[in-house]
Amino acid sequence: MNFSTLLNKEEIILLDGAMGTQLDRRGLMARGRNNLDAPEAVLEIYREYAQCGCDALTTNTLTMNRIYIETHNVGVSVRDVNRAGVELAKQAVGKGQYVLGNISSTGQLLEPYGTYKESQLYDAFKEQAEILAESGVDGFIIETMFDLREAICALRACKDKLSLPVIVSIAFATEAKGGRTMMGNSAEQCAKSLTNAGADVIGANCGDIDPAQMAVVVSLLKPATPLPVLAQPNADKPKLVGNETVFEMAPAPFAEGITECLRAGARLVGGCCGTTPEHIRAVAGLLDEEG
Fold first, then answer.
1. pTM of the model
2. Based on CB atoms within 10 Å of each CB, which residue in 75, 181, 220, 233 is the most buried?
């Protein structure tokens, strides 16, 4: 069974939790670069999530597109870092588990707010998507997108001559006023635009909202699309303690928040910043009880 078939089965799908904050806990702040510099740590985190019983792992390739790598002086090959991220995830998955190629923002703004054209973003996403596909991912997850226009650039790049399913997940700044991104896009606008652009799943992750607030966003997305809806909240709202951003929600209340997201209509769930294997294990236990 491929990942598209799983999406069509009308079952709840459990994704993994945070990679970046898990690496941070190990003192490895370089995120995607760790695929090359600290592969053992990345593999260990993948394996911990796989053992929680999730259906899919997300590659540690979040912003490893050419524009982000070059503008942030990451100093790695686009091909090498993305291929390594996939290969490590494939080592960790067991039978019936899938690998989703993770794509996110370039870290740059489109015209007229910034200097980049949509064609430039499309080219960067296209290059990354092709490398991920060649490396053997089962689908794509475009996530933590603050700008609907950039998300659509990434979606079109993933769909161009590639036949893998694509999840597109938006980061919302608030659940109020119809749900809004940092750029002012509403939940309804995101749902309708991404559906029309060919997404296979739409949803929400990260942002400045807690799991209960994300359930409100899910309730806004659900009636605006016939597609499955994803919810991957952070472990509460981020808090700045000294110079460190922390997420304080424990696994049990996080799982309760996921329950609210499911009641609101989510069919794919997982965790974003601050979540750990313990958070995902708590959600898996909850799904077992209800299933």
1. 0.97
2. 233
